[in-house]
Amino acid sequence: MTLKKIAIYGKGGIGKSTTVSNIAAAYDNSTFVIGCDPKADTTRTLVGKRIPTILDTMRDNPGCSKEDIVYDGYNNTICTESGGPEPGVGCAGRGVIVAMQLLDKLGAFDSDPDLVIYDVLGDVVCGGFSVPLREDYADEVYIVTSGEYMSLYAANNIAKGIQKLEGKLGGIICNCRNVENEEEVVSAFADKIGSKVIGIIPRSKLVQDSEYKATTVIESFPESQQAEIYHKLIDDIMMNDDIRTPHPMDIDEFEEFFYSYV
Amino acid sequence: MTLKKIAIYGKGGIGKSTTVSNIAAAYDNSTFVIGCDPKADTTRTLVGKRIPTILDTMRDNPGCSKEDIVYDGYNNTICTESGGPEPGVGCAGRGVIVAMQLLDKLGAFDSDPDLVIYDVLGDVVCGGFSVPLREDYADEVYIVTSGEYMSLYAANNIAKGIQKLEGKLGGIICNCRNVENEEEVVSAFADKIGSKVIGIIPRSKLVQDSEYKATTVIESFPESQQAEIYHKLIDDIMMNDDIRTPHPMDIDEFEEFFYSYV
Ligand SMILES: Nc1ncnc2c1ncn2[C@@H]1O[C@H](COP(=O)(O)OP(=O)(O)O)[C@@H](O)[C@H]1O
Ligand SMILES: Nc1ncnc2c1ncn2[C@@H]1O[C@H](COP(=O)(O)OP(=O)(O)O)[C@@H](O)[C@H]1O
Ligand code: SF4
Ligand code: SF4
Ligand SMILES: [Mg+2]
Ligand SMILES: [Mg+2]
């Protein structure tokens, strides 16, 4: 039986895929990793290469099978990528909808993985990108942020989306960019919106070094302190039962909050 | 008669609004500034405060008039903000469509401003956000980027959208983040996609200092070197007649290109 279905949201470039792939690699039971960011590189470090996306595969071969879109990855993971629309025309969010429907139809969830993780872009919190939440694919959300303005701005917007949909927030993951007062501002932010910081991930060169070889830190540097941090994060997520609907700030409150820390 | 209708695209947080408001303030003839980013803060430094957005105004007052959504700003500018959807439900891109239709209907373009500038988010290049281009509201695009991966990744995606719509790219604006080889990589990027760098904007503390007072650099530090740079940029844009459909890279080309510079 699936123990948890979680969605990781955050601004583009903030470290969602790095976090998702490393916690999936760190979790020994079966994990289904679903990349829902048009960038489509969540699963690259698990599979060892970029995999074809669901949208691209469907375009070329409308009658595709599960094997065409779901790939085995490192340490008991199975991996898929929704992919994005053609720039300038399609709807990125609808891509997520179409991808989810196909996964359902092809029975991709039938193996009952212990953990399901969605990696979702949070720059534009529109109807499309909220599908994993809205359609009950995911039960709890974690937001990745640094202490930077745009990243917290996006986190606050994501919290607005979660509140609107009466979804549940499990916590905030601070992926450090080493800006001033970073842990302090992220922790105060979590507090403000009625949540908590569930993990603090330091910046580490091992992330790039492993990424370069299309692997996770877990695979390439299993004994490192960074690996230990991802292990602890997934343990804490699996044990977390304090999940709540957040109460985000309005834009004026947010700006006042942020500028009181810089 | 309107001389130019331009759209400035770029990743969230890259410096679009700063650039747009400063070049609008630097241009002495009449300018219509249209913010199309859900963040809705393009015009704040021109008007001196945040203005109500078109989407919010329409929600509260469907029969609103031009005066409710178009505001006078610094140095012969008029300003409006499309605004965004409710997080989690609406479509951010459709917001742009609805806003444009209302501006048209209320005759907001009737005064024939010499210059029209659209400030558009480029993280998600979907149907919605490409409206200014697709519906011929704008004739030429400028992309703001730094030398960072995500910012160039977004720039390349925006170029894909422009190519798809057979739009025209006027050039790349490098808004420096002071990363390694920045001018070199941005200029090589411009070259690769068949465009050119039209301006290089240094990082400057004057930007934050003026922003803090809800003004542009042009207004608060008119004699500064930074102000001069924005003056030169809008002059170069107004004189630019070398605009072309770009030929963006595919994702593998892009990664190979980027990693050859870092
Ligand atoms: N903790 C970290 N330490 C060092 N680099 C990181 C860390 N987290 C992410 N990065 C780097 O930041 C970049 C963006 O991360 P990524 O996971 O792709 O972001 P996202 O999925 O949110 O777009 C990647 O190149 C990655 O190597
Ligand atoms: N040239 C610059 N020098 C210093 N700070 C800048 C510069 N350009 C932008 N910024 C800062 O970066 C932040 C984001 O800029 P903004 O124009 O709001 O980005 P966007 O409109 O693309 O989201 C702002 O706080 C602004 O002060
Ligand atoms: S619902 Fe979201 S993803 Fe879809 S077109 Fe609208 S803004 Fe884009
Ligand atoms: S829903 Fe979002 S991604 Fe889709 S067209 Fe609209 S703005 Fe674009
Ligand atoms: Mg990612
Ligand atoms: Mg902006």
Please explain how this structure is put together.
The structure is a homodimer of 262-residue chains. The first copy, chain A, is of the alpha/beta class and 262 residues long. The first copy, chain A, has one domain: P-loop containing nucleotide triphosphate hydrolases (Rossmann fold, 3-Layer(aba) Sandwich). In chain A, 41% of the residues lie in helices and 17% in strands. Chain A contains twelve helices and eight strands. Chain A has helices at residues 16-26, 44-47, 54-60, 66-69, 92-105, 131-134, 149-164, 182-192, 205-212, 217-220, 225-239, 251-259, and strands at 4-10, 31-35, 71-73, 77-81, 115-121, 140-145, 169-175, 197-201. In chain A, strands 3-4-2-5-1-6-7-8 form an eight-stranded mixed sheet, sandwiched between helices. In chain A, α7 (149-164) links the parallel β6 and β7. In chain A, α1 (16-26) packs across α11. Chain A is globular and about 55 Å long. The mean pLDDT of chain A is 92. The A-B interface holds A 11-13, 38-39, 50, 85-93, 121, 123-128, 130, 133-134, 149-150, 153-154, 157-158, 160-165, 251 and B 11-13, 38-39, 50, 85-93, 121, 123-128, 130, 133-134, 149-150, 153-154, 157-158, 160-165, 251. Bound molecules: adenosine-5'-diphosphate (2 copies), iron/sulfur cluster (2 copies) and magnesium ion (2 copies). One magnesium ion (MG) binds next to α1 of chain A. Chains A, B: Keywords: 4Fe-4S, ATP-binding, Iron, Iron-sulfur, Metal-binding, Nucleotide-binding, Oxidoreductase. Chains A, B: Its EC number is 1.18.6.1. Chains A, B: This is Nitrogenase iron protein. Chains A, B: It is an enzyme of class 1 (oxidoreductase). Chains A, B: It holds the Pfam family Fer4_NifH.
